[in-house]
Amino acid sequence: MASIQNQIVFITGASSGIGAACAQAFAQAGAQLILAARRLDRLEKLAEDLAKSGCQTYLLQLDVRDRPQVESTLAALPAPWSAVDILVNNAGLSRGLDKLHEGRVQDWEE
Ligand SMILES: NC(=O)c1ccc[n+]([C@@H]2O[C@H](COP(=O)([O-])OP(=O)(O)OC[C@H]3O[C@@H](n4cnc5c(N)ncnc54)[C@H](OP(=O)(O)O)[C@@H]3O)[C@@H](O)[C@H]2O)c1
Question: Over the stretch 3-58, which tens digit does the pLDDT of each residue have?
């Protein structure tokens, strides 16, 4: 299996739940993390905890429903953070339960 040591992992919805748990797991595996969510205070607390084990983080206060903001934020990522290896596209709420190819894009954005 490929090592994720020093890989850059971008996690949306990292301020709680599954996203925060993924952040802990990837940090333990030696990855560097871009953590995104709307609640910056929660991201800062998480980053503080992860830093204790040597994990480097880059925080983004981001609303994934705001497409222009998402595009401009991603375009402005500085090196080396712009070279994302793994995306955990986790932010959101469960809306549509259709099959992926039959669903509405809006179910993933709203
Ligand atoms: N838990 C389950 O059993 C389950 C089952 C099926 C699918 N899922 C999916 O798994 C994902 C995480 O679920 P969870 O249980 O961990 O939920 P959660 O604890 O409520 O976490 C949701 C995360 O998404 C972020 N988020 C929500 N809306 C956002 C927005 N507009 N822009 C940016 N970030 C946003 C929240 O951060 P902020 O509020 O700080 O922005 C939070 O970090 C969701 O997409 C959910 O649909 C969960």
Answer: 899 999 999 999 999 999 999 999 999 999 999 999 999 999 999 999 999 999 99
Which of 10, 11, 38, 40 to mutate to test ligand 1, by most ligand atoms within 8 A of the CB atom? 38
The parent domain of residue 17 ranges over: 8-108
Q: Which atom of ligand 1 is nearest to the CA of 64?
A: 32
The ligand 1 atom nearest the CA atom of 21:
16
In a domain? residue 69: yes
For position 38, which CATH number holds? 3.40.50.720
Query: Domain total for the chain?
Result: 1
Residue 78, phi then psi, degrees to nearest 5: -80, 155
